[in-house]
Amino acid sequence: MNKTIQTKRDTIVPATIFLIAYAAWAILVASENQFIQKFDQTVINIICNNNPAAIKFATTFTNLGNTNVIMVETIILVIVLAFCRKFAYAFFTAGTMIAANGYNWIIKHAIARHRPLTQHLVAAHGYSFPSGHSVGSATLFGILIVLTILLIKNKAIKTVLCIIWACFPILIGYTRIFNHVHYPSDVVGGFLEGIAFLLIGYSFLYHYYLENQRAQNNIY
């Protein structure tokens, strides 16, 4: 009984915390809170510059977070998992990505925040909050971190891969601010949303698959 309570805390509680944090952040953005305005301006002043090398990197690397690219990467990952007969992981990947990006579309239109008025360095359409690039990359690469932890046995390889996966959404979020197509608060909101849905998806994976698998292994 105590073990069951502990495992639920390990999965559901973090998901709830991030979901509440995301909801609070979204409310602050929607209400145009002064803290958000100061936060955005401070981060923009730190990140944005006219360095040609930085501009080249930001305008190129940001493409890795494009909706079409994330969608193709997700489909490939799901196919690979299904081919390897990791069907629970394939459903976890597909379900989490669909839920996160579907909810993101709803919130974008509900809050309807316009993008920064400064000149954009790359093409960007639609509303600003949350950053779709940030949601998609945080969710997808978060899924890759979970799959790496669960499926890779070599500790050194596991550590290196997790660091690499974690760097991608951070850098993509940076490029969205640098390219003037999102406010920093859009990126933070995207990360909070992506992580919240990742943890929710993992909770389902854990309680409906991993926990049962562990119980069966103990029986045999």
UniProtKB/TrEMBL annotation:
SMART domains according to UniProt: acidPPc (SM00014)
InterPro entries: PAP2/HPO (IPR000326), PAP2/HPO_sf (IPR036938)
A Pfam family: PAP2
Signal peptide, first to last residue: none
Keyword Glycoprotein: no
Transmembrane feature ranges: 12-30, 67-84, 89-107, 127-152, 159-178, 190-210
Keywords per UniProt: Membrane, Transmembrane, Transmembrane helix
Keyword Repeat in record: no
All copies of domain Phosphatidic acid phosphatase type 2/haloperoxidase, residue ranges: 89-202
Protein name as catalogued: Membrane-associated phospholipid phosphatase
Lineage of origin: Bacteria, Bacillati, Bacillota, Bacilli, Lactobacillales
